[in-house]
Structure formats: structure tokens, C-alpha cells
Amino acid sequence: MLRIHFTDADLGRTCISAAPDPLWEICFSLHRFQSRQGRWAYADWYRSARTRLHGIELGRVLRTLLPLVPRAVYFPDFLTPPEGSEGLDAGLDAVLGSPRRRVLQELSILDRTSGAPAWAPRLAEPEGRRELVWALRTYYNAVIAPYGDRIQARIEGERHARARAVIEHGTEGILRSLGPTLQWRRPTLHTVYPEERDLHLDGRGLRLVPSYFCWGNPVTFGDNTLEPVLLYALNHEPHHSVLPEISGSGAPLAILLGRTRAAVLRAVTAGATTGELARAVGVSASSASQHATALRDAGLIVTHRHAQFVLHTLTPLGAALLRANTQQSR
Q1: What's the confidence (pLDDT) of residue 138?
Q2: Per-residue confidence at 276, pLDDT binned at 50, 70, 90?
Q3: What pLDDT score was predicted for residue 320?
Q4: pLDDT band, residue 246 (cuts 50/70/90)
Q5: Which end of the chain is more exposed for a tag (fewer CB within 10 A), N or C?
Q6: Could you give the angle at which helices 274-281 and 285-297 cross, rounded to 10 degrees?
Q7: Do residues 74 and 109 touch, judged by C-beta distance below 8 A?
Q8: 33-42, long-range: CB within 8 Å, 24+ apart, which pairs?
Q9: Cα distances (Å, whole numbers) of residue 268 to 28, 105, 156, 263
Q10: Can you spell out the DSSP letters for 124-164?
Q11: What's the pLDDT tens digit per position in 105-162?
Q12: Would you list the DSSP string of 178-216?
């Protein structure tokens, strides 16, 4: 069990990231190679990733990365520096600049908890970390970057849903709605964890980072002195795990979908409840619900349920269709 202790100041400084953290996504996606749990949610990604990696020295990349990121209680914090929130380049620069003493200390923890590879001490030296950064970048470009639009769309949908919780209940509304593995009992957030831990925020606030590749319990840094962050899994729906690719059709949305349904799809862009769709398009709530169902069955939107309301957001396919139509109309 992990217990995260909040003060009133921490509640005021708690936020949700606007984009995925590329280095955490690298680590969590490596876990997907090591477990069949949740494989259905990533089936198309898994097949594509293996194919792509075969073309870029699969053995060398995975031999470097997998032993450092075991699906276990711990993997080194220097692999996921806070700078990763600013993008891949900033994160990799921070990995490259990790102090030698810190790298050795965290590799020692890895060795005690699940075993470190014999070559791991080389990472304390600049040349060793340069090779590590090469492997991280190569892996990311090959198997995560191609899914960037899909991942970002899911993150944006999650942020829209949590924004609703803030409007209705303040920051505590977010903490109460993060999913079944997290329970808010003021002033402490409790979550399932592989070990017994307490994290006191002490006024620093908490950065919540929804993760596409995280599966199961949330994850935080092993070192409590680092910037407080909590990575948690998005909710994957079985019928949205595989989405087709789309290119510009050349047909206006009104012709492709019908005028009203096209208007409903556009209204979902920033996230909307069924009632808001009805008001935006000028139809009844039952009609808006029927249009939303048709768009959801077509894989263009996804519906999230939160307490008394449902929130509709675009899928990557829906976002791509809108972009293609916008570009065609220019």
C-alpha cells in the first residue's frame, strides 16, 4: 500500500500533466513485453512493436533496456527524470547528465531488489550513458512515436474528464475519481502498491501523469525526495484497443456522416456531455445520445462514465478525420 499525505497547500498545487512523459512511457511499454497481463489492450501495438524492433537491432536495444526496467518493485529513478515532462530531448539530456554517484546508488538498489546486469556499472560513466540514451531514443522512435497521436488523444480525453471533476468538486474531485485502485480519504490518497510506503508531500503538491502503457497499480519515484509524481493507468476499453488508420477522404464531413452527426463530432472536440451535445447541435438529448452511440460504434468517439454524467471525447481516429476534413476544406 502507498499512502500519499496531502496538506491544504498540496491540494492547491496538485495538477494533471497535459502530455505523456516519454521516458515513463518507454519504461511501462518495456513492461508490456514482460507480461501478458492486459495484452489485449495493446495487441496491435505489441505486434507492430516487435516488427519494428526487428528492423533496428532488436537484440541490442532490448538487451540494453529490459534488464534495467524489470517488471518488479523497483527500477532506477534516473531513467525517468522530472525533465521528461518537457519532452524526449530534455529527458534524455537529464539521463545523460545523471551524477555518477546517483547512478551507482540506484543500480545498487536494483541489484538488491531484482538483480542488475553485470555491465550495469558502466552506466556510471558518460560513454555507458551515451549508449543507453541511444537505445532509449531508438526504441522510442521505433515503437512509441508512431502511436503519438493515439496516446495524446487518450491523455486529452482523460484531462477533460478530470476537469469536470474539478468543476464540480475541486481538486479533491480529481483524487476521488482516479479509478478503483486509488481511494481518497482526506487527507491521504491510498493506492495498491508492491510495498508499504508513505509519501509526505510537505507542500510540494503532486503531479498526476496519466499513462497509456501503465497497467495495474500506479507508480511513483523510489526516492521520496524527488518531485512528487504519480503515474496512473488510463482505462482501456476492449472495443477501442485497435483503431484503423485514416487519410483524407476528400469528402466533407456533412456528406460522409450527415449534417447533424458531423456537427456532433465537431462538438465533441473539447469533450462534452450528452446534454451539452444536444444544446450545441440543437437536438433533443435522446437524439444526441443516438448520434453519440453511432459515432462511438464507428470508433470516432469514446464515452467515459463519471458519477452522474457521461463525457464523450474524440478517439485518435475521430481526431484524424476532423483534421483531414479541415485540411481538405482549406
Answers
A1: 92
A2: confident
A3: 76
A4: very low
A5: C
A6: 110
A7: yes
A8: 33/62, 33/66, 34/66, 34/70, 34/71, 35/71, 35/215, 37/215, 37/216, 38/215, 38/216, 38/236, 40/238, 40/241, 41/215, 41/236, 41/238, 41/241, 42/213, 42/241
A9: 30, 48, 12, 9
A10: GSHHHHHHHHHHHHHHHHHHTGGGHHHHHHHHHHHHHHHHH
A11: 999 999 999 899 999 999 999 999 999 999 999 999 999 998 887 788 778 778 777 7
A12: S-TTEEEETTEEEE--SS-EEEE-TTS--EEEEESS--S
Cell of 208: 498526476
The grid cell for 236 is 482501456
Per the listing, cell 483524487 goes with: 175
| pTM score of the predicted model | 0.74
Widest Cα–Cα separation across the chain: 66
Residue pointed to by grid coordinates 497521436: 149
Picking from 211, 218, 171, 216, the residue whose alpha carbon sits closest to that of residue 191 is: 218
Provide the 10 A C-beta neighbour count for residue 137.
Answer: 17
What rounded mean pLDDT belongs to the chain? 85
Average pLDDT over residues 226-247: 66
